[in-house]
UniProtKB/TrEMBL annotation, chain A:
Protein name in UniProt: Alpha-glucoside transport system permease protein
UniProt membrane topology term: Multi-pass membrane protein
UniProt xrefs under Pfam families: BPD_transp_1
Keyword Isomerase included in the entry's annotation: no
Species of provenance: Geodermatophilus obscurus
Protein family: Belongs to the binding-protein-dependent transport system permease family.
Highest taxon in the source lineage: Bacteria
TrEMBL record, chain B:
Pfam families in alphabetical order: BPD_transp_1
GO biological process: transmembrane transport
Stored PANTHER family: ABC TRANSPORTER PERMEASE PROTEIN MG189-RELATED-RELATED, OSMOPROTECTIVE COMPOUNDS UPTAKE PERMEASE PROTEIN GGTD
InterPro entries: MetI-like (IPR000515), MetI-like_sf (IPR035906)
Ranges of residues in domain ABC transmembrane type-1: 100-292
Protein's cellular compartments: Cell membrane
Name of this protein: Carbohydrate ABC transporter membrane protein 2, CUT1 family (TC 3.A.1.1.-)
Phylogenetic placement of the source organism: Bacteria, Bacillati, Actinomycetota, Actinomycetes, Geodermatophilales
CDD domains registered for this protein in UniProt: TM_PBP2
Family to which the UniProt record says this protein belongs: Belongs to the binding-protein-dependent transport system permease family.
Keyword Membrane: yes
Amino acid sequence: MQWFLEATTTGHKIALMVFAILLFAAVMAAILFAVDRPKRVPNWIVAVGFVGPTLLLLAVGLVYPALETVRGSFYNRDGSSFVGLDNYVTVFSEDNFQTVLFNTLLWVVLVPLVTTGLGLVYAYLVDRTRFEKLAKALVFLPMAISMVGAGVIWKFVYEYRPDQPGVRQIGLLNQVLVLLGFEPQQFLLNAPSNSFYLIVVMIWIQAGFAMTVLSAAIKAIPDDVVEAARLDGVGGLQMFRYVTVPSIRPALVVVVTTVAITTLKVFDIVRTMTGGQFSTSVVANEFYVQAFRQFNFGLGAALAVLLFLLVIPIIAYNVRQLRLAEELR
Amino acid sequence: MTTTTPVMAPVPPDERRLTRTERRAVAAKNKLSSPAASIIALVIAALWTVPTLGLLITSFRPELDIRRSGWWTALSDPQFTLDNYNEVLYGGATNFATLFVNSLVITLPAVVIPISLALLAAYAFAWIKFPGRNLLFVAVFALQVVPIQVTLIPLLSLYVDAGLAGSFWTIWLSHSIFALPLAIFLLHNFMKEIPASLIEAARMDGAGHVKIFFQVLLPLLTPAIAAFGVFQFLWVWNDLLVALTFAGGAPDVVPLTVRVAELAGTRGSDWYLLAAGAFVSIVLPLVVFLSLQRYFVRGLLAGSVKG
């Protein structure tokens, strides 16, 4: 048994990995073989073979834990006694949690709006230019970088050196400040502006997504619409405002809501760059801190449920807008 | 990134592209000839590239130089070394080479298993008629809204009870489960695009569902599999939350992201370590992404996005 649980050498780990994949393949092959063998099996038995393993995993790994978390949010820190809504009251009344809620609100409003705006302007500007491919690839690239990696990249941009003779700045942003004659700043330490500097990182990562989707939408605007507007003497900014933006409205809604949901659950950036200190924590980070650092499972569960509740209205809005868009067609 | 919303962005039909490109080339020229527009585009492009470039250059500079001056000085006075990478990869305190193996061992099964499961499930939802099919499909689709945070605490205690805690199995299982709703939804969309007549024909020839799945559908779905594969690869390789929760205390299991995040917290001013470490963790996803970008974009536009 030990062999399957503790792999310490590289060879062992790779062997274990191959074993896991083979085990999975063997189990699936056995199931499919079993449902395929008898000639006249009813459809539902075949279906069980195809969907059964998935449904089992989802039930055990997603549905049960989610229900259990909702239950746990009404219990105290180790789940031993029922406390009603106390955990939620704590989240909404204590000072440091109010900072957390305010920061989350800041993130979820700013990131989607700025990201979509930037992505839209950039997609419009480089659309059908000679450099389109390269220009898009540059903005798209951060999507491949982990949020941890992006956090490190930007932490270096914000790096601060004390303002003394003989000490040179090594962070790009502070160097720019010094060149312009300002004093260098501790960007990540001073609340409340430090939250904005973290938000920048998220915008930097997500803009590529916004740009890609919106660029595809811009390209799909029918030629006759653009042509007709041009014949009417519409050009430049007016074209953007009265033709491009209204034509891609459904895509805009999808981008804003998708980015908003991603943003709600971001914890990597905050954790990497400030660890949630200096009043920069957000709900997703606070969940991790409470559940796995403070071992206050009740409070952690309440924060997770809160996250879930915050996601629902955004998705509801998204679905509604898509319905409206389809009715218009 | 775990929940999802459908992205309905229309993709331009390929056959119309040629004439359009010609017609709109003129318009594009006018657009970028305005100096303000070009400057905005240039500034955005620079802001999106320079931070990464700065850290990349830093990762090749000698430790002392990094502490004494900004990376831009290396542009006029280039002094580069591989010492940082040597230290990060094989040094006693960091040993990123082992962590790279961990990340790889975590990622491969966590990509292969959910894709296989989702392909089978998506096939059943698309082409096998069974009672309750639509209801089940909607239920699976709806599971995409559950943030993974909601599942972590009970899942961890399940793993502890099963004696799996701190092993690769917990991470493989978790990533596979979390990926399923989106994967099924995406692959189902692709599968529905395949003409029903093709499947009917195979059935007429006496092929069962298993045979149809492997011989008719799988070959046609390669682009879709590639699209979701790239997606899932990036998601698992870049994940921090799942790995930290289930393997945070197990040095033989932790992936690169966890250690990089830890280094940023504990040795936040050792930029020679952090810069090189960050790039060790970034390089593989970057290569995968650049070589398979076509599929990634297709997946992004066709179905949905992990949130």
